[in-house]
Each structure stands twice: as structure tokens, then as C-alpha cells.
Amino acid sequence: MKFGLKGKIAAGIVVAGVVSSSSFAFANTDAGENLKAWYDGMFGQSVETMEGDTSEYIEDQLPGLNEEYEALKEQSGVDIDLTRELETGESAEEILAAKMNHIEALEDKQQEILGNIGAQYYDVFLDGYFQIQTLQQEGLDYAANDLTAFTGDAGDAAVAQMTDDLNTARDTAVDELEEAIQNAQEELAAEIDSQEEITTRNLRNQVDFHIEDLRGEVETLLEGLVEEQKNIIIAAAQDLEDDAIQALDDAAGGIND
Prior knowledge:
Blueprint: H1 5-22, H2 31-123, H3 129-253
Helix pairs in contact: 1-2, 1-3, 2-3
């Protein structure tokens, strides 16, 4: 991350040098306060630059994070749809098996009844044709009632079992989805924490590095300014000294006037 401090400091040094050498009146100003004001301005610009670069870095990371998030959403949808297909297939197989069992039971019972009809009615054949018809009807009524009750009970049991199986499959799917979502959230949260710590540490390191550079540059600038003021003071003192000596010489020479 580049904060651009060196260029701004160099410009400040040039400006300060021009101001300090422009006239002798600068010696009457407070160089320390001027330096502090200059430093405060440079520091404010440095903070704004760091904040802008950091914000830009965060914006650059957002598209990648959004892509990861959308990929996780898409994968969870695939997992859900796959679970639906598997559970639907298993349930359909169970329903088909139950139907075939009922058909087989019905056919077996029908064959059993038909197989016994001849022997039953042969035994009672001598009782007469009308009695045979009566017995036949009674047998048919019995079969109808018995099979209706049997198939009804079996159907109720099948529906109850199917309901339990599908509800169990539904609950399992929901639990697995919630677990997947939680895992995804935990992984994202961990990655966010890691990236936040790394970025913060890097920013702090950059702050330390630039502060150290600024400290050295300010010290160098201050040394130059102080040395320049010393030279100005020395020169001014020499001029004043020369003027005083000349005045004394003039006064001494005018004694005889």
C-alpha cells in the first residue's frame, strides 16, 4: 500500500527552504509552531491517504467474497435437489412394493377361495341347487367383507408407514441442510477473522514504517532549518557588530571636530 508521503514531504522541504531564506524577517517568527503546523497538515493527508487505500482494498475483496458466497448457495441447492431425487425414488419404490404385495395377497386369496369353492359346493350338492346358490352368495359376501377389511387395514398401514418414512426423510434433509449452512457460515466467519487480522497487521506495519521514515525526514529538515537560522543570526550579528564598531570609530574620530 502506497501512501505517497515521501513526495509530499519533499515538496514541503522545498517550500520551507524558500520561505526561510526569503527575508531576514523569518527570524522573528516561531519556527517550531510553523513546523508543527506543517507536520499536522502532512499527517492529516497521510491519514486520509491510508484510509482511502484501505477502503479501496476492501472494495477490491468484495467481488471475490460474493463469488464464493454464490458458489456455496449454488452447491447447497444442488445438494437439496439431489436429496429430493433420492428420497422420491426410494419412496416410489416402497409404494410400488406395497402395491405388489397387496395384489399378490388379493390374488392368493382369490385363488384360495376359488380352489375351495368346488369342494365346498360338492359336499352340499345334494342339498339342492337353491341351497348351493345361497351358500355361494354367502361365500361371496363373506369374501367381500373380509377382503375389504383386510385391504383397508393394509392400506392404512401402508399410508402410515409411508408418512413416517417421508417425514423422516424430510427431517433428515432439513437437518443436513442446516448443518451445511452452519458449516459454510463458520468457514466464512473464520476466513473473515483471518483476513481482518492480516490486513490490520499489515496496515499497522505500514503506519510504523512511514512514521519512521517521516521521523527521519522531519529531523533532517529541522536540522537544516536550524542550521540556516544559525547562519542568518551569525551574519546578522556580524553586520550589527560591524555597524556598532563603525559608529564607535565615527564617534571617536569626531572628537576633534
